[in-house]
Write a structure and sequence with these properties.
Length: 296
């Protein structure tokens, strides 16, 4: 099937799932304006809008859907097909942790971008999207009396589920539709950042998407991209919780890590991140060489 036809089929399934998703949510006996209801919608969206359509198209387009989505190394029934390498998993976490100061620097730079006066209307709209996204995030992450169980709920709904669903959608499906791996990585990273509709974090999110894309290209396994994505989301949730309820720091101070007074963290962590990316790529080559020797 032609890639454009695949995209059309995929989008049709996504639209169908979205309609069913919102229909079910509206039919539930809930107060649809409160935070708990919106949090449930967030979870349903991660599953119904991202995971379910990916599972559907993988079964339609491939006889080996797990392998096609890079969930397994080889057939799903083979021994150790689902197993991930411990070193790569740890490096995946380390890469994201050390990238945080640089990401914050890119976001700070992105926020300084001003559009021409002729595009003032567009800039106001982008700022409105940003404010709405921040207000919704604040509503999700503000817990009554700092309830720890809500922290666990948010870790699942806002960190784990989006990491799985978005990686399957963008790296698992969209990135696989392009023949050139570099075009695939960067186009997917662009779309990944664009659909978040947050212009003032666009470039940082696109670079992060590219890192996630190359992590898949180098390793051949989407599990490591999921670990990176989940680490990034988990750090955001945990830092907000700790900053608000334990350290009593304003969110602006946490977002400024790596900028202003803590600029030195960016200088320290960026080379560490680069070193870990090098080790990640090197380990991938070692595993591929071991696999080739076993199969020869």
């Amino acid at each position: 099937m032609h890639p454009l036809l695949k995209v059309c089929e995929w989008l049709l399934i996504m639209v169908t799932c979205t309609v069913l998703l919102f229909t079910i949510w509206h039919l539930l006996p809930l107060n649809h304006g409160d935070t708990a209801s919106l949090l449930l919608l967030q979870a349903m969206q991660a599953i119904g809008l991202f995971i379910v359509p990916v599972v559907a198209v993988s079964w339609l387009w491939s006889d080996e859907p797990e392998q096609w989505l890079h969930l397994t190394a080889g057939r799903a029934t083979e021994a150790n097909a689902w197993r991930l390498d411990g070193q790569l998993a740890l490096l995946s976490v380390g890469i994201i942790v050390t990238a945080i100061p640089l990401i914050n620097c890119m976001v700070a730079w992105n926020r300084m971008i001003r559009l021409p006066e002729s595009l003032a209307g567009l800039e106001q709209m982008l700022q409105s999207f940003e404010q709405q996204a921040e207000a919704m995030l604040l509503a999700f992450m503000t817990y009554k009396n700092g309830a720890w169980w809500m922290l666990l709920v948010n870790l699942i709904v806002m960190a784990i589920l989006p990491a799985i669903g978005e990686e399957l959608t963008f790296r698992g499906v969209l990135q696989s539709l392009f023949r050139n791996k570099h075009v695939a990585v960067w186009v997917t990273a662009f779309v990944f950042s664009f659909v978040h509709f947050q212009f003032y974090g666009f470039f940082a999110r696109m670079v992060l998407g590219a890192v996630l894309g190359y992590a898949l290209v180098w390793s051949g396994r989407i599990g490591y991209s999921m670990i990176m994505h989940a680490t990034n989301n988990t750090l955001s949730v945990l830092l907000f919780y700790l900053g608000t309820y334990v350290w009593h720091l304003p969110q602006a101070e946490l977002d400024a890590i790596g900028t202003e007074q803590t600029w030195w963290l960016t200088l320290l962590c960026t080379p560490l991140m680069g070193g870990m990316l090098y080790l990640y790529c090197k380990r991938c080559k070692e595993l591929q060489a071991d696999s080739a020797n076993q199969n020869s």
